[in-house]
Amino acid sequence: MEITKIYKPDEVAQAAKEIQLGELIAFPTETVYGLGADATNEKAVRRVFQAKGRPANNPLNVTVCSPKMVERFVGEINEWGQKLIKQFWPGPLTLIFKTLPHALAPVVTGGLPTAAFRMPDNQVTLKMIELAGTPIVGPSANSSGKPSPTTADHVFHDMEGKIAGIVDDGPTAVGVESTIIDLSGDTPIITRPGAISIKAIEDVLGIKVLLKDDKDVAPAAQYKHYNPDAQVLMVNDQDWDQVDQWLKTQNQKVGVMATDKVLDSLSNTKLQFSLGQDVQSASKRFFAGIRHLDNDEHAKMILVQKFPEIGLGEAYMNRLEKASGNQTWSLE
Ligand code: TXA
Ligand code: MG
C-alpha cells in the first residue's frame, strides 16, 4: 500500500514531478476524473491497468495539452481531425487516429494500429501535462466496471493505496465521459456519445457520421460498465405514479434518482437522490447518485429517470442503459 496524497490545484508542479517519476496521479477534467501516468513509460502504464483492474486488451486514451502533442504519434492530423480540434478542443471530445508505427507501446493501445487522443478543458490538468513534458494515459479513475468518478472523493474510494496522488479541483462540470469519434477509417464513427452531440459534430464536418455503440465495436465491448452492486432500473415517465404505489409495498431498500419535479410528486420514497432540474444537472450528478445510493446507503435497487435522447440526453441515456443493463421498471 502506498500513501495516496491529495494535491491542491496550486500544488500541480509536485503532481507533474510524480508523473515524470513514473507514478500514478489522478487528475480532474471537465467530464470525469482520469487516472494519469506517463504514456511513454510502459511500466507506469502497466500499473494503471493493475490499479483499475482493467483487462489488458482494453486500450487507454492519451491525454495531451496541445494538438501538437498528438502529431508526434500520428504525423499530420487528417482534415476531419483538424476541423473538430479547432471547434471542440480543449473539450469533451476524444479522437481516434491511426498511429505511426512504434509511436506508442502496445500496452497503451492494446496492440491496435490506432489510438484515442483527448485534450481536456481543465487548466490544472493542462498545466500538469505541460510541466511533466509528456502526454499521459487517461482512463476514468474508477475501478474497472464501476461508475466513473466525478469527485476526488470518488477516486479516493476506488484508488486509495494504489496510486501516488489525486489532484483535487472540485466536482467535474459535465459528469459523463467525452464523446469518442473514430477518424481512422473511411467514415467517422461515434463509438461513445458524450457532451459534444452527434449533430454538433455533423455540423462541423459537413457530413453524416455513423453511430456505433461501443457494444459493437471497441474492445471495451465485452466488459460490464457502471455496474454497482444494487440493481439499477430505468423508469418510464408515465410510470412514476405506479412506482409510488409500489414503493409503499417494499421492505427492501429502494433508492430513487429523479428531477426535483418528479421527486416532489412522490410520497412514498424513503431514499432519494435529486438529479436537479434537467438533463444537464442529471448528467452531472448521475454517477455520484449511483455511487451514493450503492456504497453509502447500500440500496438493493435504484430507480432512475429517463430523458429524451437528444443533445446531452444521448450521453445520459447511454450511461443509464449500461448501468441498468437496459432493464426498465415494471410491475411484473
Ligand atoms: O471523458 C473521458 O474520456 C475520460 C476522461 C478522464 O478523459 N476518460 C475516459 O477513459 O472515459 P476510459 O478509458 O474510461 O474510456 C475510453 C474508451 C475506452 O472504452 C476504450 O476502450 C476506448 O476509449 N479506446 C481507447 N483507445 C481506443 C482505440 N484505439 N480504439 C477504440 N477505442 C479506444
Ligand atoms: Mg471508463
Can you characterise this structure?
It is a single chain. The protein is an alpha/beta fold and 332 residues long. The protein folds into 2 domains: 5-180, DHBP synthase (Alpha-Beta Complex), CATH 3.90.870; 231-324, 3-Layer(aba) Sandwich (Rossmann fold), CATH 3.40.50. It is built from 12 helices and 15 strands. The chain has helices spanning 12-20, 42-52, 67-74, 79-88, 106-109, 123-132, 152-159, 198-205, 240-248, 260-264, 279-296, 312-324; strands at residues 5-7, 25-27, 34-38, 61-63, 93-98, 114-118, 136-137, 165-167, 179-182, 189-192, 210-211, 231-235, 254-258, 271-274, 301-305. An 11-stranded mixed beta sheet has the order 1-8-2-3-7-4-6-5-9-10-11, with helices on both faces. It has a 4-stranded parallel beta sheet with strand order 12-15-13-14, sandwiched between helices. Helix 1 (12-20) packs across helix 6. The mean pLDDT is 96. Magnesium ion is lined by residues 139-140, 148. L-threonine binds at residues 31, 178.
